[in-house]
Amino acid sequence: MKDLYNHKDRYNHLLNQIQTFNPKRRREFSRFHKYMITRELSLARKITLLNNLKAFFKTEDIKPTTRINIYNIIQKIDRINKSPNTKRDYKLAYRSYLKSIGTDEKLIELIAVGNPDIRKPKKIIDKPLYPYMNSKDEQLFVRLLQETGARPGEIMNIRHKHIEFTDFGAYLTITGKTGTRTIPIIDTVPMLQENRKTAKNQEDYMFWFTYGHISKQVAKMLKKQGYEDTYMYLFRKSKATELFETLPEQLVKKYMGWSKNSKMAKVYSFPRQEKLTDAIIQMNQARGIPKKMQTNLNNWGA
User: Which of 64, 126, 147, 161 is deepest in the core (most CB within 10 A)?
Assistant: First the structure.
């Protein structure tokens, strides 16, 4: 897979930084690093935990793990001028560090982290946006984002061999955080067939621009189209919202690449008022809703 986020260089840079710490701090971080290796964590996860531990304990000593010291650390994290998600990340890194040194589980449980703070989009994408991108490759990328709801990094790592054309459309095989999944696609098939004509090798990646490039281009396009939220994950949130309005939760989890026990399903969909209204009207149509009541329902929540 492509190293979209330059993980290898960032990881090596972090390890070099650790070597410049004073002996006591260097031993603490080196021990934590060895612990992460034994846990077989991904490179991205190692970078995140090391960075967050380093960021908070840059000026703080990692004191003995008594109940009082842990409470003091929690209070200091809660008081710093950072976003709720950053504070949560610091606590997760601290919890992992405590596990690495064999801290009693009851003490570790004192550090409550809660769910991530997922910001609700100002506006859900509900119209095709790919025509507003500049090149054919960028248009194909955005159309796949919108139809599949896949993570941008998953789309970046698609090779031509991952597309299997069928009588009804095509199957797209995606490799993500929870493994490999197959998604049926229909709307994007004509563009995929056109793109296939230019493929020299089935092993070739479909997209050759950088993650940074496409992220900037998508942000510009979304802004021009009147969206306040201009990040690529807006497509994923929009797709999740659409799926939750028609499919059972377990099917949505499978489609979106979430594990069966994932909590993301509860924080990643944003029911639309008009869909809720339509559902209530349809549910009661058999009983014959008076026209006046139907009008009132249509205005409900407006």
Answer: 147
Report d(CA 145, CA 127) in Å as an integer: 13
Cα-to-chain-centroid distance, residue 217? 19
Q: What is the pLDDT of residues 67-122, one digit of tens each?
A: 999 999 999 999 999 988 899 999 999 999 999 999 999 999 999 988 777 778 88
Q: Where are the domains of the chain?
A: 7-108, 130-262, 272-302
Cα–Cα dist 7/45, whole Å: 10
- Alpha-carbon dihedral sign for residues 156, 236, 183, 46: positive
The overall pTM is greater than 0.85: no
| Cα Rg of the chain (Å, integer) | 24
pLDDT tens per residue across span 263-291:
777 667 666 666 656 655 665 665 555 54
Q: What is the DSSP string of 165-180?
A: E-SSSEEEEEEETTEE
Return the amino acid letter for 113. Answer: V
Instruction: Decide: 29 and 50 in contact? Cβ < 8 Å.
Output: yes
Q: Contact 140/188 with Cβ under 8 angstroms?
A: yes
Q: Determine contact, residues 143/130, Cβ cutoff 8 Å.
A: yes
Tokens of 103: 């801290």
Residue 44 burial by CB count (10 A; 0-12/13-18/19+): exposed, middle or buried?
A: middle
E strand or H helix at 183 = strand 179-185
Contact 152, 144 (CB under 8 A): no
Dist CA 157 CA 2 (whole Å): 6
Report how far apart, in Å, the C-alpha atoms of 255 and of each of 129, 137, 148, 183 are.
22, 24, 8, 7
> Phi/psi of residue 67, each to 5°?
-60, -45
Residue 144 contacts residue 150 (beta carbons within 8 Å): yes
Domain 130-262's class?
Answer: mainly alpha
